[in-house]
């Protein structure tokens, strides 16, 4: 046996091994570049079909949000990136929403945008969509599972904390308040309430005399507050964790001829207008309707092989006496029972996705 031949062959074998490893790394890198975000396998091509799985469409906030989604889809269609948008409405039923999402999976849509009716019930079907290479983006009302492409939201916990702290400051740490929550079991409502609790615990002089859960509409909120006013002759503040809830509360006080009390809320047009008309002491923030449009944009970016954050945090603005006029100056551009939300564009979306 010629040992020199064996010795001379070693570099050759090493070279071949190096080439193989390099090829493997190149293939892996290429695959990663095409599938940089969770759920994405890199095998879907534009134009994409987008599914919008909504829990319910009746509240005006939802209608306005759907408007931002359809507008974003229209813009992406012009760019040749989106072909179709499929919309479902579960009418408040989480089991119906599961079935509708499953139908989207069976139809092999490219992306599913989810406004969840339950934080836990949708976990399995969302994971199933993800495993099939469907981009899943969940916004506003979030699910527990992280087996999706992205979650997009403001910090609901921070929302509750800031609202509660404002109330403490207004009442100098003493007084009787009512808390108005959105529907029980909806993550944004539950998280806002959880965020408020540490502030309330630290300020024992602030007495929560009662609290209620209602859907995010003025009429049921007004009815609920009317009942609470009859039962509670002394109320110093309303810690409302939703704009339509706040408007209903102010209207209930007004109808009973009672002076308004410090009230928190959000950017619901009716609440902001009542705030100004009644000389209310108010504080508000915003859950931007364009979270829906951002979700569509994020899904398309992911499908194109771009890396998107697993969680996109959208900063909470503050509305107070110093800037409420700016919001009301644009009120006529929004429905009377709608929300005055801030402007948005692709530059803003790119900035948020660059976090």
From TrEMBL:
Residue intervals of the Periplasmic binding protein domain: 51-306
Name used for this protein in its record: Ribose transport system substrate-binding protein
Gene3D superfamilies attached to this UniProt entry: 3.40.50.2300
* Source organism per UniProt: Rhizobium hainanense
Keyword Ligase set for record? no
Similarity section: Belongs to the bacterial solute-binding protein 2 family.
Single Gene Ontology MF annotation: carbohydrate binding
Location relative to the cell: Cell envelope
Q: Where are the transmembrane segments?
A: none
């Amino acid at each position: 046996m010629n040992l020199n031949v064996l010795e001379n062959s070693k570099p050759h074998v090493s070279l071949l091994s190096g080439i193989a490893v390099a090829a493997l790394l190149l293939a892996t890198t290429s695959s990663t570049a095409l599938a940089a975000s969770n759920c994405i396998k890199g095998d879907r091509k534009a134009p994409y079909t987008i599914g919008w799985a909504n829990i319910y469409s009746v509240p005006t906030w939802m209608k306005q949000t759907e408007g931002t989604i359809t507008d974003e889809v229209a813009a992406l269609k012009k760019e040749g990136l989106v072909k179709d948008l499929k919309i479902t409405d579960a009418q408040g039923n989480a089991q119906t929403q599961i079935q509708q999402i499953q139908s989207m999976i069976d139809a092999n849509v490219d992306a599913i945008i989810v406004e969840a009716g339950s934080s836990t019930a949708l976990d399995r079907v969302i994971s199933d969509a993800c495993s099939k290479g469907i981009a899943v983006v969940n916004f506003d009302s979030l699910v527990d599972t992280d087996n999706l492409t992205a979650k997009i939201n403001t910090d609901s916990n921070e929302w509750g904390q800031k609202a509660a702290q404002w109330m403490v400051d207004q009442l100098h740490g003493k007084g009787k308040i009512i808390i108005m929550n959105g529907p029980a079991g909806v993550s944004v409502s539950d998280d806002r309430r959880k965020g408020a609790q540490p502030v309330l615990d630290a300020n024992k002089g602030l007495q929560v005399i009662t609290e209620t859960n209602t859907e995010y509409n003025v009429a049921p909120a007004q009815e609920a507050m009317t009942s609470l006013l009859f039962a509670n002759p002394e109320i110093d503040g309303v810690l409302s964790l939703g704009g339509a809830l706040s408007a209903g509360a102010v209207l209930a006080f007004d109808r009973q001829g009672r002076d308004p009390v410090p009230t928190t809320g959000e950017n619901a047009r009716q609440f902001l207008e009542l705030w100004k008309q009644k000389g209310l002491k108010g504080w508000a923030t915003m859950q931007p309707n364009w979270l829906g449009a951002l979700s569509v944009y994020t899904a398309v970016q992911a499908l194109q092989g771009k890396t998107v954050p697993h969680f996109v945090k959208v900063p909470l603005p503050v509305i107070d006496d110093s800037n409420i006029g700016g919001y009301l100056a644009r009120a006529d551009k929004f429905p009377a029972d709608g929300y005055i939300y801030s402007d948005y564009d692709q530059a803003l979306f790119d900035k948020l996705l660059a976090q």
